[in-house]
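Q: A small favour: would you put together sequence and structure tokens for a protein?
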Amino acid sequence: MKKILIALSCLALTPSLLQAQPQLVGHRGSYWGVENTAEAFVNGARAGYDGLECDIKITADGEYVISHDDDLSRLGHSVSIEGSTLASLQELELSQTRGDETYTGRLCTLAEYLDICNQYDCFPVIELKWCTGIHSNESGNNDFSKIPGLIGLIREKGLAEKAVILSSMRGCLEYIRSNYPEIQIQFLTGQYWANHFDWCVEQGFDVDIQIGYFDEKAVKQFHDAGLKVNVWTVNSESNFLTYYDYGCDMMTTDYFKLSDITADISVGISSLWSKRKSELSYLTAEGQNAMGVYEGKLYIPNRETGRFVVVDGTDGSLIAEHDTGLSGRKMSGLAITDDGAMLLGGTGGDSDTLYIAQCDREQGDIVQQFALPVPGLGEADYLAATGAFYSAEGGYLATAGNSGMAAIIPFANGTFGEPRVIPGHGMTAPASQAVIRDASSFFITGQYCPRKLYNLNGEVIGEFGEERPATDASSAVCFTLGGKEIFVSAENKVGILKVFNITGGLAQATVIGNTTPAMGRGANANLTTPLCVEYVDDYAIVYLLAPNNGMAAYKIYRRGASTVEPATDDGIRIFASDSLIQVEGVAPGQSIAVYDLKGRLIQSTVAESGCTTITNSQPGQTYIVVTSGQAVKVCL
């Protein structure tokens, strides 16, 4: 969280610079009314849209009206806009069926539209369509004669610093930038946005790109150039979450509302890199069914060859390959402890012995080997560990057998203690794995086995409720991120991941965002897609290996994450906690004001002794808290 060193009066003019979530813009007003009519605009505003988009045309008598088409044939009348006067056009009753409802209305003027924007505190988004007095093309067929009147009316309504002019006509946009520099401009584009990128940067134009034609890298490219990105047209939760995670600043929609969201949006997931098997020479069809990470490097053993590869976690490139001299399933599993000890092992077909080899991560040499008695465990091919192997406090190694039992093996000071075989899922489940949650509990997964949480005695202490992971594959990771407890599940054997927020308990688990795309369609005989996780600053990176298909890395982060603001010279801290705003260190009786990003006062109160809680805030929103001469942005 950072302090906002701006005057509060500027907040309404620059909301998108501060906003943690994208602004929604109603396309042609909204779906609730004849498009581009007063009813559609008012209903869009009432639906909570931040902006209202319209299209401009010019009548025969030179008036500015709102219409997408050159004529009104789609709305019930075969009359042209340019061939008709405003008065004659407004006598017509327009009609449009949208969904199951038929709406009627009349043509809206630009002035009426701007009045609605003012009344409902929405910013105008005005698309320039080709018409007399407003057009340009690459052949030099330019006519800007009606643009001054358009800008004049926007200024007259007091909206010059809020309005956005949108068009695909480059000449018109350049004319506006040269003559009316206070106007915000977006270039309307689609599949070939990259052809216009340098021009947008040169002109300082934001961009509005058609859905489906760009990705997160494109958004970053524009953001790195100081430009914002709008996307049109977003009408589903799935698309909203995708472009939310891309980092889009605005989304134009016909009817989608934030209240339509059913997924948990407190945590986001975005792709860092993804590569097919054909791009990674070290990937094989079989034998690679485990993976670990330490300090940005990935370690992938191959039980068929006795070798392991070291991979750069930033891009998936090969760093090194080492031969351990181990054979078969005795190096099937891999776990890396908190202090970097790499442990390879498995039962190797012996249901009563767990073979563990500590291996030098950088050279491949065997440091020490262990044969640990685990009577009745059964075949166990996967390892998980928590704690520092060489510390006095130590930790434990966990593994699950395919026949339904599990084993907990404590370690400390570089060696193992006595193993304990405990009850597991009680099923015959191939590829069973232990997934450590914390120092006192772990999950057990397995093909077709429900994911449950166990204590170190093998007792079930938690089960997923209505929202639950699939059981086709057997890999998962669990970690805590910014106060949120996250469970990431491999949903199938070709690399689809699903992310769950389990902070409120497994029974109340919520799905975070969209599932990730499949890595491919290659057969995966390993029945698993290995996962591992590493923290970087204030986010986590989950690495995925889909055998015979490819690898990927995903960033998982708190949306609008707000850690405690360090105490100022005055000892004041303003921060988010449990979806509420907390203010500490303000003298009792001092005023505290909370504003939304449009500068509207949400709550005004006075400081209490100790900590003051702001109760009128909503999860997922961003606020500005002003007190004692400071303004601080808080994202919930």
About this structure: The chain has nine helices and 44 strands.
